[in-house]
């Protein structure tokens, strides 16, 4: 019996755990000049003095990156597999993804929302994307839904016939959802955000695929809560990773 197929147009990002604060940057930066500091000596994130903010800005502006590495954020992400392919090009993070070899993948598939741009123009590296018309939007949604459902039926037929999961999964399309944990420090996250978000204030404009940008936006929102001064300084310095 075919499981009920679900179609989604969103992604899930949750902050599982974080050991990350603006003070982590200050501790790391000052150890070479003043030695170890305690949290009480440094003050809380809310009480960062102007000199502390200035130090974080100096480190960001002049790209002294290692003080931004002494922290950790772990995210849980649900997104289509083609998004994870892009994630894992960033080899400055740790990933653990659910395995289609060891469990049956759920029939959850991505279909672009109607407002998602569909038309691509321009040269490689300088693409611009524009909305599709109603006919194009309907074509994309219909074809993705039909092909996803047909692929999952084939997948189930092979499983029912005793075919190994690692073989049966070969028929599944890239828009099936997977899930993973990803852990990175703030420096790695800033590198990721500089490439996977489009921001008019960025010193080096990026043109990310919308689906991974949706993940990046959610990750950045969590990070800003943990390290507000660092995030503010990253923005003020053109969103360039130190």
TrEMBL record:
The keyword Cell inner membrane does not apply. It catalyses: dUMP + (6R)-5,10-methylene-5,6,7,8-tetrahydrofolate + NADPH + H(+) = dTMP + (6S)-5,6,7,8-tetrahydrofolate + NADP(+). GO terms for biological process: methylation. The active site is at residue 196. Gene3D superfamilies: 3.30.1360.170. InterPro entries: Thymidylate_synthase_ThyX, Thymidylate_synthase_ThyX_sf. It holds the Pfam family Thy1. The keyword Membrane does not apply. Catalyzes the reductive methylation of 2'-deoxyuridine-5'-monophosphate (dUMP) to 2'-deoxythymidine-5'-monophosphate (dTMP) while utilizing 5,10-methylenetetrahydrofolate (mTHF) as the methyl donor, and NADPH and FADH(2) as the reductant. This is Flavin-dependent thymidylate synthase. It comes from Gulosibacter bifidus.
